[in-house]
Each structure stands twice: as C-alpha cells, then as structure tokens.
Amino acid sequence: MLTILVAAHDLRVTVPAFYLAGSQLPFATAALGIGAASWVLPAKCFRVLDNMLYTMYKRTCLFIFENLSGVTINYYGDIDEIRMKKESALLIGNHQSDVDWVLIDGLAARQSPEGGEHMVRFMLKDAIHFVPLFGWYIYQHGYVYVRRFGKYRKEPVERQLNYLASIGEPFWLSIFPEGTRFSKKRPDTIKKSEEICEKIGVPKMNNVLVPRAGGFSNALDGLTKAGALDAVYDVTIAYGQTRQEGRHGRAPNMFEFVCGNPKYQNIHIHVRRFAPSEIPNDIEERKKWLMDRFQEKDKMLDDFYSQGQLPDLRESDAPRISLCRSLLPALTFGAALVAPFFSERVRTAYVATIATSPLLIGWLHIRGCV
C-alpha cells in the first residue's frame, strides 16, 4: 500500500512536468504553421490566431497550477480597479520562484470575464532565447530579451517596445527588477544586495533584493513616448509555503507548488496601481521611487511572515479559473501529445518542428533580436 502511495505521489509530480514540457512541441508546431500563414493573412487575422494559441497554452498551465494543485489564492489592494480596466500596463513584481509567471497569468485571467491571458508578456534575460522553439516563439509574441552580462544593447529592446505599442490592443509587460530570484539558498546574492543597501544608505531588506531600474526605466520611457502605456502595476507575491518551519525565504518550485502540503498551499497577491504620470522623470528620482516600492514589499512580506496575510485584503479564497476555460485547452494539448503514436503525418510534423529549432535561434541572432 505504501509503495502505491509513493508511486501515486511521484506520478502527481512527474506527469504535469512532462505534460507541460511536452506540450511545447505541438504548441511550437502550431505556432510555425500560423507564422507561415501570416505571409498571406492580414496582420489582424494573424494576431487573433496567435492570441488564441497563446491563450490555450496559458490556460493549460493554469489548469495544472490552479485546478490540479488546488491552491488557495487571496487578492489584496487595487485588484477591483484592475479588473475593471482593460489597459496596457507595466508590471513590477518581486521574484522568488519559477512559479511567479503563472501567478501573473492567473491575475490576467481574471482581468475581464473573457480573460486576458493573451496580453501577458515578460522582460527576460537573453539566455532564455536558447530554449528550443519556445525561445523563438515568445520573442515573436512580444517578449523582451535583455542582456544581464556583457554590453547592453538598447536596439532590440526598443524594437520590441515599439512592436507592443503598435499592436493596437492592451498588453501587460511584466518585469522582475531584482534580476534574479530571492532565495535563502543564495546567500551570496543576498549579501551583495545588502552591501548595495549599505552603500546607498537605505535599510537592508530581508525578503527582496535591490531592484535594478534600467529595464523598467527603458520600458516606461519607450511605451510612454509612444502613447501606449495606461498604468504601472506594483505586484507583491507571497507564498504560504514559505511560512512552514525551516522554509522562510525559500519559495516553492513548480513541483513543490503543485504537490506541497495543502495546509500551506495558499498564495497572496497584492496589487497597487499607479498612473504613469506618478512616476518621476528624473532617473535618480525614478531609482528612488522603485527602491521605495521594494522597501514597501519587504515590509509587507515581514508582516506576512508574522500575520499570515498582506494588507488591504479584497478577496479571500478567490474562485479558481473555471474548468470551462482551462479543461478544453488541457485536453487538446494532451491529445496532441498522444497523436504522434497514431499518425505518421503528426510524427513528421513534429520532427520537422524539432529540426527548425537551431534555425530559429539563428534567426533571432541574424535579426539582432538579442
């Protein structure tokens, strides 16, 4: 009996991981097909098809991380105002886990009755472009790659910002200004952050790292100049699992998030909305503004660890994304994963897709996308 329980637990971890990773192959195959059709389709038709595909994958992820995991989600702050507005926004968030992006997707899914998953883009380190197939796709969907090391290249960033400004529909560009995840497993990273705090004369932070203003500032300036930015959302994420004994400062990874102790499987998301006009234009004042936001996040997380919640609770135990929206995409990708076992044409299409991966990475370099 014990062996069966252990095996069942292992499957609960392994199957979703394999499923999400494997789904990228049919996803990329469909994306290449839509991309090829864009040569003859009007740009608006291409964007509609691309948004539909992107939304399907995002809802498949939400099926795993919300419906399957059974997580409890609590929202705080200006969440009601954000739900009422379908607008283009920059999101700045604290970064603790490789699950953070899914929680942003979940926030977008509740942005309107029909959902807004297709709006979400991220500013990412340029190394992500080497991820086979997916690295190419997310760039063409409007993600922004930035270099963490070496000479900063402004042109690719400006090109993507101009693209987002030109698409004629609301978008969210999400940025994690810390540049890497905060984790007690990374004492050297935390020490460097504390040294910077000491150097610039601000209190040391216990739960976040010193934010970098470069990417945020470039995005804010570029999108504001293009008249394509309506708001800045300051998002603070707290994981209930970090309140377990011995887990302070160690947010769950994807596996722990899905299969963790149900008692601590709760998420807390605080959102504060700013108008772009509230952000200083002077670069030094803007750095201070961003630092102030992260000092506030640090204080909120201190309170979370002592009290179990963030300030200004608006919705406790929010309804998970409806299975009417997430189940069909999940089943579709599941069928697409099984299809090559029964169809030679599908196998051929998948092999061809895999073969294009190095070409697509090369294309990103030739086009100067990174």
From TrEMBL:
The chain crosses the membrane at residues 17-41, 127-146. It comes from Steinernema hermaphroditum. Residues 89-217 form the Phospholipid/glycerol acyltransferase domain. GO terms for cellular component: endoplasmic reticulum; mitochondrion. GO terms for molecular function: acyltransferase activity. Keywords: Acyltransferase, Membrane, Transferase, Transmembrane, Transmembrane helix. GO terms for biological process: phosphatidylinositol acyl-chain remodeling. InterPro entries: Acyltransf_C, Plipid/glycerol_acylTrfase. Belongs to the 1-acyl-sn-glycerol-3-phosphate acyltransferase family. The keyword Membrane applies. This is Phospholipid/glycerol acyltransferase domain-containing protein. It comes from the Eukaryota. SMART domains: PlsC (SM00563). SUPFAM superfamilies: Glycerol-3-phosphate (1)-acyltransferase.
